[in-house]
Protein 1
Amino acid sequence: MMFRLFALLLLPIMAFFAAKSISQKFSLTARQNQILFLIIAALLIVAMLVAIGRLPAQFILAPLGGLGAFVIRFLPTLMRLLPFWQMVMSRRAAAQPKSSGQTSTIRTEFLEMILDHDSGEMTGTVLRGQHKDKLLNDMTLETLLSLLIECQADSDSQQVLEAYLDRHQESWREQASATSRVPPTDAEAPMTRHLALEILGLTDAASEADIIRAHREMMRRLHPDRGGSDYLAKKINAAKDYLIG
């Protein structure tokens, strides 16, 4: 009797840790974690009742048999409906509003640039050089042009800073025209999965629908035709192509 009581008390604890482990692995929300806990706890209790003879095995076997027969009978129909279901869910996910506060990060040798998905605003921090640890928003145009000369050593840094200047200092090119600068090179940092996810503001658990939705939202705000940057648009497209391709 005591053993059975101890086992019944132990089952919710086992369900809690099992749900917690699965939640951490798949990055579930708090509500999804609660539902998962209830499902696991219920399954463990039913299994325990069957094991101690308090619940007939047919209580489990009969529904499973019925479900198996249903799946076998209607499997061809379900397979035909699967592409339609995926299309509906993809459109539904794409129509959902973007969560507020989501950002993307682009890191180069000299800069760390953060893009706000909601407003399309760009903020940045200098990572090295004589202006290290300074915020771009706190720097004057003269200081930014000085930083731009330093960034000539890295093509990605130079293009990211030019994109920032195009967005925040419309007349910077006229003031910089008298300064001799080395033209940007074609050498850029190779795309990686970590970098692509960082650019799109996604986690490693992102699905293809999440990638497409994030790409669409960012291009809508940062496309060159809407005051964005050719370089940033190219990076966003490259990140999506890398993850999906």
Protein 2
Amino acid sequence: MVLNNSSKKQLNEFYSGIIYTLLSFVIWGALPLYWKLFESVKAFDILIYRIIWSFIFLMITIIVLKNYIFLRLLLNLKSLLSLSLSGMVIGINWFLFIFAVNSDHVVETSLGYYINPLISIFFGMIFLHEKLTRIQWTALILVFISVLYLTLNYGKFPWIALSLSISFATYGLLKKIFKYETLAGLTIETLILFPIAFVFFIISYFKKSSSIISLSPDFHFYLILSGIATVVPLALFAMGTKRIPLSTVGFIQYIAPTLMLLEGIFIYHESFLKTHFISFSLIWCALILYSISLFYKKS
């Protein structure tokens, strides 16, 4: 079968979209390995550096690409308020992720990102008036049963998993409602957080209360890279989702929590009890049903 130029272009776009999306979720899945380097550092101190260096890296990217769309958003009150809200939400998610990983909750972090797409479905129903199919309702009920089972049998409410999934689903909802150019939107979000982070950085520096001050120059360099580790997967994800169907993204996104789960069990030797297995099995069943619902919706 001979493809014309248009078909070849579409096929190349599809394959490049697959590669971009795969890379984004592989990076996100591997991030616990990176944050574990700073296990002795307070999560809030890491967050401050992450915000500062993300903003600096974004500004360098904007200057290199000569993409100054974010300046127009700064002059629009509605854009500024909506991006301030999404910036605060993603800032909370960043803090929770760092805290969870460095307090030996990688497995629970994985559970959170398995639950995340199903929380997004629920938000879509509540806030965007999207209708759920019977399969999607079944998937949501399985998630509820999973969380309830884990709470009752493990004796501990999985607040880290739910906080991570709810905060990231909220960020996704805001992105769905307020549609801005990727680089411009992310720049404003970090710009909103930057002054707050910088003030805390100055205070902790003069009070010598930061757990980062005593770190070696090598670790300071690794912290500088946190800006790249934050922005690059977001940019890859944005480029990928423009080129491939949402249903394909839905399948690929489970790479990240799967990698986190494997890291938590086999690298950091976190406990994975029978209770965890049953709870995760219910989540996996829910995700299979969710994926089936996407397939039938697209077909």
Protein 3
Amino acid sequence: MGFIQASRGTRDILPEEVATWQRIEAIAQAILTHSAYREIRTPIFEQTELFERGIGEATDVVGKEMYTFQDRGDRSITLRPEGTAGAVRAYIEHKLHAQGGVQRLWYTGPMFRYERPQAGRQRQFHQLGVEVLGSADPRADAEVIALAADILREVGIQGWTLSLNSVGTKADRQHYRDALVRYFEQYANDLDPDSQDRLHRNPLRILDSKDPKTQAIAKEAPSILDYLSDLSKTHFDRVQELLQRLDIPFVINPCLVRGLDYYTHTAFEFQLEELGAQSTVCGGGRYDGLVTELGGPDTPAIGWAIGLERLVMILQQQSETASTDIDIYCASRGVEAEAQALQVSRALQQAGLAVEVDLSGSAFGKQMKRADRSGAPLCLILGDEEAQNRTLQLKWLGSGEQEVLPQSALIERISDLKKKIILSKLAKRV
């Protein structure tokens, strides 16, 4: 009988990669916490109606990509395909709007869409997202875009392009939709099959087609910027002004419409050429009508989501993976030495250092090879002689520098050891 593999469109995140994920999450959490955002954790599955009403039944996500099933109570349940609808549902259900002011929320976790698996795009994927509910001010748009830029820069993502557009109000989009239908109807037979299906159902999505022939046709399509109301133009102009004052470069892309029906006014994407067809690493926009659509009070809102798989993939391509998470490797041999090594390692761990204890019991030569492979800057060595004398050897694996130290003096050296470990890790990355 053969072994069981992970389902198509899912993947295991192995220990050597988890360090990169944890680093990204820690950086994002620190930036968001310092910006007054609070974490929210919503269920992985919701009532199907939430996404049908929130995302839009005419979208590809609802029409083709959701994992929907009947539970034992014969209720239609869907694994969440994105995070905004659930966050808004929680905002309404728990009356967060009654607290007054602006609610700044962030979340992270797995999402599910039945798509063709490819690099950086799985059927189970992970997003980090933010939602700002309760502000129609263009400063909220600039704030969330700036936060995304800060996170991407801090984790080490280089060479991104911020594409910016306005999809206006619902009325603006209806006028524009009518113009698009009139334009694309002239070329209906030349469009790719997906775009032909979208022509009368969701024509704005044709602008996002990856088919070269359809893209060429779409280049000559009317621009939504010509159909914006004065209110929408004023909002969009102010967002651009604020981004310029924050020194965040951007390009205007009138074809950027995003894939979900709830967007209004500002739409944006952070893109990386290295990702090819799936170039978007972060996307979002304003959704002023979604809270009302889901049964809540009239509440303007804006948010974004970062695809973590794509972020990790591009970091690996740019060789910006996290440094080793091990500070000290502990090698020991002999019954008493091994017991003392556990005691010493535990004391160091409680003092805030990451320590890996070699449990093999093999010869010191083999343990030292594993110490080198671990990436730890420092190795503690305890043998029979050290155990008898209650000492240990400190060996800096980069320089080969070595010294003998009483075990009782080790904790007194913690501060100096931490500084030297940090410098060793930084030197290795340069």
